[in-house]
Specification:
Order of helices and strands: EEHEHEHEHHHEHHEHHHEEH
Helix content: 40-55%
Number of helices: 12
Number of domains: 2
Number of strands: 9
Radius of gyration: 20 Å
CATH architecture of the largest domain: 3-Layer(aba) Sandwich
CATH superfamily of the largest domain: HUPs
CATH class of the largest domain: Alpha Beta
Strand content: 5-15%
Bound molecules: iron/sulfur cluster, zinc ion
Largest sheet: 5 strands, parallel
Structural class: alpha/beta
Shape: globular
Distance between the termini: 49 Å
């Protein structure tokens, strides 16, 4: 992101540019920048057939800039497609972090007149992240691995309880390419194929997961949120440095500094690689988890395994 002074907007040729899009070289004024972000979101949604007329959307909203921007833009564009929107929020049980963002979400939703449903890990799984980290017996059990496993289930449940058939999340271009490298480094090739953005229906309720902000740099989303006066939480999760994601993020940001636009090239490469891999993914047979009865590729699903593992560690303390 580059803020400019006194250069003409390349789109309208009338106003002064405030933003330079590094990978395309475009200089945009505030109004043209905001429009360009919204049209990029629409283009991504059309390109990957993310939403159909009449879909019921559950938008996962954490209180950060990505999810609130997503909710704001979807709310703007969904009316023409007769889509309903519910904001769904997960409270991970991270002291001093989540309480502030939940308050921001509540106020933002109330201003947009959107219903907000909240559920906590404590209610669903009997334990929050702070408690889980306090009793873990091995540093191999990372906060983000437990949190990610619980979050996927919590979002699925909230969406189902609210009759949604589409779950939208605020993953941006930076998140997408970081996840690609995480999967490469962990050897999880199937997951690269699954990351291809054209949604498929999954589970017994046939929910589709979509990522409409996928083609936007994180910095563009921050710039958009600031210029639309979208309030967001800037505090970072206290556990974020436990994940390899932070190192990958720093590395990619350094590359982008010296080679502007390189993240966009990586994004396009990731799309092609994941499209190719998607067609070759090995489809393991699906069964029902013996504990929770939800669809799973193993006899016990990853959520129930995690709950059992944590309760075992809790009883040893
Ligand atoms: Fe959960 Fe990790 Fe994200 Fe914190 S950084 S909210 S622990 S996934
Ligand atoms: Zn289970």
């Amino acid at each position: 992101m580059t803020s400019l002074n006194l250069e003409e907007c390349n789109k309208c040729r009338e106003r002064v540019g405030i933003y330079k899009r590094n990978y395309s070289g475009e200089i945009l004024c505030k109004a043209c920048f905001l429009l360009s972000v919204e049209s990029k979101v629409k283009k991504t949604m059309n390109c990957f057939s993310m939403v159909k007329h009449g879909d019921k959307l559950a938008v996962a909203v954490s209180g950060g800039k990505d999810s609130l921007t997503l909710l704001y833009i979807l709310n703007k564009i969904s009316k023409s497609m007769a889509n309903t929107i519910t904001a769904i929020t997960v409270d991970e049980g991270i002291g001093g972090y989540r309480s502030e963002s939940i308050q921001i979400v509540k106020e933002f939703c109330s201003n947009l007149n959107i219903e907000n449903k909240i559920v906590s890990y404590k209610d669903l799984f009997g334990i929050g992240i702070d408690e889980a980290m306090a009793i873990r017996s091995s540093t191999k059990v990372t906060s983000c691995s437990v949190c990610g496993t619980f979050r996927r289930r919590a979002i699925d449940l909230l969406a189902e309880w609210n009759g949604a058939n589409v779950v939208a999340t605020g993953h941006n271009l930076d998140d997408h390419i970081q996840s690609f490298f995480i999967n490469v480094f962990s050897g999880d090739v199937d997951r690269i194929g699954w990351s291809y953005p054209r949604p498929v229906e999954y589970g017994t309720s046939g929910i589709r997961k979509i990522k409409p902000l996928l083609a936007l740099y994180e910095k563009e989303i921050i710039f958009y949120a600031l210029h639309q006066n979208i309030p967001f939480q800037s505090l970072e999760c206290p556990y974020m440095n436990e994940s390899i994601r932070t190192e990958i993020r720093n590395f990619l940001n350094q590359l982008e500094e010296t080679r502007p636009g390189i993240k966009y090239n990586i994004y396009n490469s990731v799309l092609k690689i994941s499209a190719g891999l998607k067609s070759q993914i090995s489809h393991k047979g699906s069964t029902k988890c013996l504990v929770c009865q939800r669809q799973s590729t193993n006899k016990i699903c990853s959520v129930c395994k995690t709950v059992v593992m944590l309760s075992g560690q809790s009883s040893k303390k």
